[in-house]
Design brief:
There is one protein chain. The protein is α/β, with parallel strands linked by helices and 331 residues long. The chain has 2 domains: 2-67 and 157-328, Alpha-Beta Barrel (TIM Barrel), CATH 3.20.20; 78-146, PK beta-barrel domain-like (M1 Pyruvate Kinase, Domain 3). The chain is built from 12 helices and 15 strands. An 8-stranded parallel beta barrel has the order 1-2-3-11-12-13-14-15, surrounded by 4 helices. Strands 5-8-7-6-10 form a 5-stranded antiparallel beta sheet, with no helix packed on it. Helix 1 packs parallel to helix 12 (308-328). The radius of gyration is 20 Å and the shape is globular.
Length: 331
């Protein structure tokens, strides 16, 4: 069982990383959604030193930009009060150009993994749009933006992704996480870029983050080294109460194909502010392992949370208990 944390300000020192490895972490994720691999050289060096002191050959996964859409840079965090009105596009929240073409009245807009919900009320003459804030909150720079049902299809890789792939082997990357995989062709394009860069031994992980990816899972199983059930954006694609059943179906298909899979997103989310998880979170981790997950991962809990070492301790110990349970009660 692989236990992954995510690098970030909360664990960006060798001492904390060493404690996380000793608590059970086997590898880390580096989010390159709005950064370059070269910019993380110092972080990676601290990671290596910490792992070496623990005698661990740590995995390093890079999470690429891929076809995910994000808002641009904001001058400061933006408060969006429920019931208010906000501008999207020129003079307002900066959004990718492909999004603007789909800003039609009535279109829902999900921000920051669905934490915020807008509904377009009018187009503007400058190409932007006005939107009502249906579910408010604080919006930070570079957070995800999704338009359910709009059918926007950006390329599988950005130029930044290609540059990061070219550097991956030099930085000891062991796996590339491709977001929003929509087809086998997406994975083949990334695999070809890895091979061209001398990364034949770098694993390719396919993140299932929307219904298109879930529906085309059978064709992805033989093109990816591991499937990632990425419940953040996947939970935006359908009512949340339907997400557990979809997770179970994906897990079952992976088991039937003998394909490794990872479960991620909000596994111990309350621990961003609490030293102890909820009982429901511990059960979620336990059940993911019982369903056959080969790895589990936390994101914001270690990247920006207050208790990164305790997060890993709970994650690893819960996974071990699930493995012990399976040894006595095999499926």
């Amino acid at each position: 069982m692989e236990i992954y944390g995510t690098l970030g300000p909360a664990c960006d020192d060798a001492g904390t990383l060493e404690a996380m490895f000793r608590a059970g972490m086997t590898g880390v994720r580096l989010n390159l959604s709005h950064a370059a691999l070269d910019q993380a050289a110092d972080q990676i060096e601290r990671l290596r030193r910490a792992a070496d002191r623990c005698g661990i050959k740590a995995g390093l996964l890079i999470d690429m930009q891929g076809p995910e859409l994000r808002v641009g840079k904001l001058p400061a965090p933006l408060e969006l009060p429920t019931g208010g009105t906000v501008m999207l596009g020129p003079g307002g929240i900066p959004v990718p150009e492909p999004v603007l073409y789909h800003m039609l009245p009535g279109q829902e807009v999900l921000l920051d993994d669905g934490k915020l919900l807008l509904r377009v009320t009018a187009r503007r003459t400058d190409g932007g749009a006005l939107a009502e804030v249906v579910r408010g909150g604080t919006l930070q720079s570079h957070k995800s933006i999704a338009l359910p049902g709009a059918g926007i299809r950006p390329p599988a890789m950005t130029e930044a992704d290609r540059a990061n792939i070219r550097s991956a082997r030099a930085y000891g990357v062991t796996g590339v996480m491709q977001p929003f995989v929509r087809s086998r062709e997406d994975l083949e394009a990334v695999r070809a870029a890895l091979d061209e860069a001398g990364g034949q031994d770098i694993r390719l992980l396919a993140k299932i983050e929307d219904l298109a990816g879930a529906e085309r899972l059978p064709e992805l199983l033989t093109a990816a080294d591991e499937i990632v059930i990425a419940r953040g954006d996947l939970g935006n694609a359908l009512p949340l109460w339907e997400l557990p059943a979809l997770q179970k179906r994906i897990a079952a298909r992976c088991r039937a194909a003998n394909e490794p899979f990872m479960v991620v997103t909000q596994m111990l989310a309350s621990m961003e502010a609490s030293p102890v998880p909820t009982r429901a979170e511990v059960s979620d981790v336990f059940n993911a392992v019982l369903d056959g997950a080969s790895s589990v991962m936390v994101t914001g809990e270690t990247a920006v949370g207050r208790y990164p070492v305790e997060v890993i301790r709970y994650l690893a110990n819960t996974a071990k208990e699930a493995e012990k349970f399976l040894a006595v009660h095999p499926k």
